[in-house]
Design a protein that fits this description.
homodimer, alpha+beta, 60s Ribosomal Protein L30, Chain: A, 2 domains, six-stranded mixed beta sheet, 26% helix
Chain lengths: 282, 282
C-alpha cells in the first residue's frame, strides 16, 4: 500500500465531518464559540531529513510544518503534542523544540517517547482555534491567486547543504491570522507551488491559471531554475485566493487567476505543464 | 538520554498550564464551555508489540491506549488523529482502525503517513471533552481506592501468546464518563497496578495502602502469580479514589485506602514492597 492507497482506505472509516474527507491539511471541529483546528504530521530520517541532521533542526521543522497547517486555517495555536524517538542527541532535539516554541509563543501540551532501534521518526499534533477556517475548496472563478513571501528559498538552501530556509521554515502564523477572516481559499505550499495550486483548484472546481513571470522567486533563483522552483516544496508560504481587486492585509504577490474549470486543474502561462507538478508522496 | 531524562528536559520548555507539568496522562485545555482533553501516545515494533503481530491488533491497541487516557479524564472522545508508518499489511492496520473506531463510535479526524525503512512506529492523538477532568493529584487521605474490572488478564494473555486482553484492551470510556464528575483522583492502569497507585499517591501527597487479597484478579491468576500481576501493566482499567462509603456508579472493587503520606508512596498489606512496582519505561 502506498500513501495514496492508504489514505483512500482510511476514507472508508468513520470520518469526522471536520476531517473534510481527509482532503485538507487539518481537521476543523466546531465548538459552541470557536472552531478547533487539529493537524498531525510526522517526519522521518531518510524521508524528510538526511541522517546526520542536527536534531534541533528536526524539532524545528517538525513543529514548523504543523504550525504552518494551522496558519493555513487562520488559526491561533493553543499548543502542540510531540511524539519522539529517543536518539543520540535528544538534548539537541529538546533545544530546537524550545527555540521554535518560544519563537512562536506556543506551549507544549504533552507527548510521548519511544526507545526504538532503526531510523528515528517524530510526530507532532498542533491544535489551534479560529473563528473562521478557510479550506482548499472555497476558491471561485475570477479570484486572484496570491502567495506570501518568496518561492524557491528552500530549494536553494537544500542544494547548498540544508540551510536555514529548508530546515527552519517560518510558518506564516501572523499572516494566516490576518488573512483567515477574508480569503476564499487558503493552504500552505508544502509540496510545490504548482502542485498545491492544482490541488486547490481541483478541490474548488476551478482551473488555476498561473503566470510564471509573476511568481516572486527567491533571490538567487536563476532563470533556468524557475521551472524547478515552482515544482519544489518546503517553502511553507501561504497560497490563497480572494476576489480580484481585494488588497491583502499582509505582503503577498498575485501570481494568477482562478478560472472556470477546464480540462486541467492548472495552466502555466496558458499551457498544460509538461512535467510533474511537484512532490508527490510515495 | 533515557525517557525520564527527556521528559525532565521537556519540563524546561514553555509548558501549557494544562500540561500539568507533564505529570499526567493527558493535557486539559479550558475553553469557555468545556474542558478539552488531549493525549498522544506512540507504539513501536519491538517495544510495545512483537514483530509479526497482526497490524489490525496494532491499530486497535494504538487507539485503545489513547482512548483509555481520555477515559481516565472522564472525557467523551471527539476524534483521533493517526500517524502511521506504511508497512506490509497496512490493509490490516486500516481494518483494525475501522474496528475500534466503530466499537467506540469515535471518528477519524486526520493524520499522516510515512514510508520509512526499519521498525515501524505509530502515533495517535485523541481529543475529547468533559465538564470536569479528574487528575492524579486529587486523592485525599481517607479516600477509598477502587479499580474497575480485573487485574492480570493482559499478563495471562501475553503469556499465552498475545491474546485479546493484551492486544485488544477495552478502554473504559463509559466508566470514565460515569466516574469523572464524582471521583477525587483517577488514572488508567497502564504500567502496573502498584506503580500506578504509587504514582497517584505521590502526586497527591498520600500513601496508597493496598490490600493484596482485595485486588480483583482475572480468572486464571494463580496464587503464586498475584505479586507479578499487580506489577504487570496493560490492563487499562481505571484506578480512582473517592470518599470512603461512596458507592461507585459502575462496577469496581475497593482495593485499599489513601493514608497520610508516610516515607513510601505505597504499602502492600502494610509492608514496603521489596521489588520494582511495575513497568518503568526505559
Amino acid at each position: 500500500m502506498n500513501e495514496a492507497e492508504f489514505i483512500a482506505a482510511l476514507r472508508h472509516l468513520p470520518l469526522h465531518p471536520g476531517a473534510q474527507d481527509l482532503r485538507d491539511d487539518a481537521a476543523v471541529i466546531p465548538l459552541r464559540d470557536a472552531l478547533l483546528v487539529l493537524t498531525h504530521d510526522m517526519i522521518a530520517e531518510g524521508v524528510h531529513y538526511r541522517a546526520g541532521t542536527d536534531p534541533a533542526d528536526i524539532a524545528w521543522k517538525l513543529v514548523a510544518v504543523n504550525l504552518s497547517d494551522l496558519a493555513a486555517k487562520g488559526a491561533a495555536p493553543l499548543g502542540v503534542l510531540i511524539g519522539a524517538t529517543l536518539i543520540e542527541g535528544s538534548e539537541r532535539f529538546v533545544a530546537g523544540l524550545d527555540e521554535i516554541l518560544r519563537a512562536y509563543d506556543v506551549p507544549l501540551l504533552g507527548g510521548d517517547t519511544i526507545a526504538s532501534r532503526g531510523p528515528a521518526s517524530f510526530g507532532c499534533t498542533a491544535i489551534g482555534r479560529t473563528a473562521r477556517a478557510p479550506s482548499r475548496t472555497g476558491a471561485q472563478a475570477g479570484d486572484a491567486i496570491h502567495v506570501t513571501g518568496v518561492i524557491g528559498a528552500a530549494m536553494l538552501d537544500f542544494r547548498a547543504g540544508d540551510g536555514a530556509a529548508y530546515l527552519r521554515p517560518r510558518p506564516r502564523l501572523a499572516e494566516g491570522l490576518a488573512l483567515g477572516p477574508h480569503v476564499h481559499a487558503m493552504m500552505d505550499v508544502s509540496d510545490g507551488l504548482l502542485l498545491d495550486a492544482a490541488r486547490m483548484a481541483e478541490a474548488s472546481g476551478c482551473t488555476a491559471a498561473i503566470t510564471l513571470d509573476a511568481v516572486p522567486f527567491a533571490p538567487g533563483i536563476a532563470e533556468a531554475d524557475r521551472l524547478e522552483a515552482v515544482r519544489w516544496g518546503d517553502d511553507y508560504e501561504l497560497l490563497f485566493t480572494a476576489p480580484a481587486g481585494w488588497m491583502p492585509p499582509v505582503p503577498a504577490t498575485r501570481i494568477g487567476t482562478m478560472t472556470p474549470a477546464g480540462p486541467l486543474p492548472l495552466l502555466l502561462d496558458g499551457q498544460a505543464p509538461t512535467e510533474r507538478l511537484g512532490y508527490q508522496h510515495g
